[in-house]
Fold:
Amino acid sequence: MKTKTMLVVALAGAIVLATIAYLVLGWYWYGSYGHGYPLNSNYVNNPYGYGPGMMGYMWGYGYPGVVGGAPTPYGNQYGYPSYYSFGEYSINEALTLAMSAPRSALEFRSNDTIVFRSSNVTLVVAAMMGGDAENMTGSPPPSYSRGDVFVIYGLINPTIVVPEGAVIHVIFINLDDDMYHNFIVTTAPPPYPYYSMPYVARGTEMGPGMMVNMEWLPPANYGEGYAASYSYSLVMEYPGIYWYVCTYPGHAEEGMYGEIIVEPVGGR
Structure:
């Protein structure tokens, strides 16, 4: 009887120790992936010090360590992202993508607008300092912008026009050399407060479903020639006015945002 009791106690102790080891090593693993490696197809990097899978579990998304696309339980309802993935681009490739509009895009530089008639839209978005964007595009930032900006196909914080039901494939790249940035879509309009994340997420259809994409990407590593990126897709299911925003404290307040117009189809 005493032997059986000792075995049960030993087994219970082994389980407790294994659980503690799993938690400690798991936290270290995520911390290492968050800070210890450059961002590429195998390693995930973000300013929080743990992989996107951790945020995935927190918000009911995806799986830990998944790179290249994790399905979400929300599907495409209300335009929530249908997948997300993290990766990197070379600096030169990122600059080329940010300046090269696809054939399906009609650019109107006079009013800083890009119109897509296709229902399948790829949107390459680069974050950078306003002065760098002006030098790259040859155009000044919008009058409301006082800091960092988005560059989309050679325009700074342009208005994006898409048809109702369009699927937007976002490729977001951080080309800023000293700032964290993100790119989310919301129904919450400007002006934005200094801490814009609660405002953007509260009371909107798209805010809560995009929390996973609110992770801020680290600055580009110009010394090694790569820039952090992530991608996701969303369906612009309903006509109306939406906004794309960087939620890093102070950025949206200083004008790091732009408008998305979803036009009704069929005369509705």
